[in-house]
Amino acid sequence: MTEFPTWAWLGFTGLIVGLLVLDLLVMGRGQRIISFRQATWLSVFWIGLALLFGLVVLAVAGPERGAEYYTGYIVEKSLSVDNVFVFALIFTYFAVPAAYQYRVLLWGIVGALILRGIFIAVGAELLDRYEWIVYVFGVFLIYTGIRMATHGDTEVHPDRNPVLRLVRRFVPMTTEFHEESFFTRHKGKLMATPLFAVIIVIGTTDVVFAVDSIPAIFAITSSAFVVWSANAFAVLGLRPLYFMLAGMIERFVYLSIGLAIVLVFVGAKFIYSGVFDVKVPIWISLPFIAIVVTTSILASLWKTRNKTTS
Q1: pLDDT averaged over the chain?
Q2: Global pTM value
Q3: Domain span holding position 265
């Protein structure tokens, strides 16, 4: 199967950097409260861009890699709904004003992209060097899926974040916001603001979710480029997704069940491929995952159709 050339890696990296810079200059400047309508259009933009990029993958590497990209994107996008719930908890914990949230999410996601890139590189190297890693990933995904189905809500405790605790030992922080600044001077001393703490918590907390999602997509494709590009587009679309769903996240009552089924499926797929040295066709995986996720979302919305959103 055709591997992705160097120019594809460089071109995609340049695209991501360009989109982040554009977002920072256009949407990330000044205090801004994102309305539901704006968030919806931004989500349509990011999803449309991700779908168009899938055509590029298909043209460069063939239909199987293209299908793997779309399958991986569906998985990553679906799992990212959990991030929305976590963002809401983090903003509530730190009492972040609505006008600062979009910019904070932008920088938090930049950090998340960097950390995910490192995680993907390590995962790809482990899979390439050690064949038995597929069983570790497979068992872990099945365990995670079962735990997701039986434990329900995600818990997050920003005050227990080890990275934030470490940073606070070396970087003095204020207890008050100073508009959108991440750092400020107090009595001539440079200090971090609570917004800087929020960025750290968002970026590092996302890695916890990446521990689930990245092995899941590696069960779908062996291409590090497909894993990275699907992850990048899913993460880039997190900000508008948050402003769309933050007020209605409680309506997705069956989504965790759907995601649990997906994780168990891809985990079993990982183990099956390792034991029998036979790859489950992507044309089986793609429809199955799409149907499960769509059904869980539609069933959730129907179940909570009479529930008002906050």
Answers
A1: 82
A2: 0.81
A3: 6-303
